[in-house]
Amino acid sequence: MGLATIIENEAHFQTEMANAGTKLVVVDFTATWCPPCQRIAPFFEQLPAKFPRAVFLKTRIDRLQGADPGSLEAKVRQYYGTDEAADEDSAVAGHMDLVTFITKSECECLNESDDHPLAHALNNGNGYLASDCDEQLIINITFNQVVKLHSLKIKAPADKGPKTLKLFINQPRTLDFDQAAGNMSVQELELTPSDLEGNPVPLKFVKFQNVQNIQIFIKDNQSGGEVTLVNHLAFYGSPICTTNMGEFKRVAGKKGESH
After folding, report:
1. 230-254 b/e with 16+ CB inside 10 Å = b?
2. Per annotation, catalytic residue among 37, 107, 109, 241
3. From CA 70, how far away is CA 55, in angstroms rounded?
4. Sequence spans of domains, the chain
5. Which Gene3D superfamilies match (predicted)?
């Protein structure tokens, strides 16, 4: 059973943070005289066993206000990823599935089938994405905070899966097909059938260090047919510590009012 690491001093804390790399780090700032700290301590000690791929640290401070076990576990689950993805995560060492950072309501796919939209491909095992009028697709994925992208994972049929991809980042709006075909991309990929088995497809990591959105132009498919299919599309990397404005809640007054 895993245990939280007790932090002895600031140097020890900095060392543990550096050693964690891109792993999720959860720190319990505690004090022996603090009743909320003592109430949440047994619960916190259970978390390392539940989430072995995360790093749990414990350090004493002068003050801690409140303790909410439910919110603590919810936050760990949000950034840790799903249990079903654990085996897949191990194939991309040091990086996580960024599905929890995708703002699905702001994502878009041009030329998607009404019966098989992009949403089906963003949830593994819940259907598939299919093109409509021809084989081409433009997929616009928006993240709720800035991320670093390391690789893609695509599951698709060997004959109808994507072949040529052009990747664009941080575009102000969704490109149209003429723009996607003519504009310079950040990276272009030529996929093979083995790439469509869910194997990680590495990106030029240095070019994907500050990504708010990514657009994928699927130019053609493996067989040259009229319909392109994608069973699952996933993005692997790590979030950059920025403020997610979507998590702010109004506490008083109406929108537009001054205080």
Report:
1. bbbbbbbbbbeeeeeeeeeeeeeee
2. 37
3. 19
4. 5-80, 96-239
5. Glutaredoxin, PITH domain
CA distance 106 to 215: 12
Tokens read off for 2: 């895993």
| Cα–Cα distance measured from residue 180 to residue 215, given in angstroms and rounded to the nearest whole number | 9
> Which architecture does CATH list for 96-239?
Sandwich (2.60)
CA distance 169 to 186: 7
pLDDT tens per residue, range 229-256? 999 999 999 888 655 555 555 555 555 5
- Give dist(CA 153, CA 87) in Å, integer: 13
How far out from the chain centre does Cα 211 lie? 11
Q: Is residue 34 annotated as part of the catalytic site, yes or no?
A: yes
The number of CA neighbours under 13 Å toward the Cβ of 60 is 8
Q: Is the dihedral of CA 45, 46, 52, 55 positive or negative?
A: negative
Low-confidence ranges of the chain (pLDDT < 50): 1, 63-65, 85-90, 257-259
For residues 162 and 219, what is the distance between their CA atoms, to the nearest angstrom?
Answer: 8
> Which of 169, 101, 98, 94 has its CA nearest to residue 139?
169
CATH topology of domain 5-80: Glutaredoxin (3.40.30)
| 3-class DSSP state of 178 | helix
Beta bridge partners of 211: 147
Task: Considering the candidates 34, 107, 133, 241, report the single residue annotated as catalytic.
Answer: 34
Torsion sign over Cα 223, 228, 231, 232: positive
Classify residue 170 as left (phi > 0), alpha (psi -120 to 50) or beta: left
Q: Is 37 a catalytic residue?
A: yes
At residue 117, the pLDDT reads: 96
Q: What distance in Å separates the CA atoms of residue 244 and residue 58, rounded to the nearest whole number? A: 25
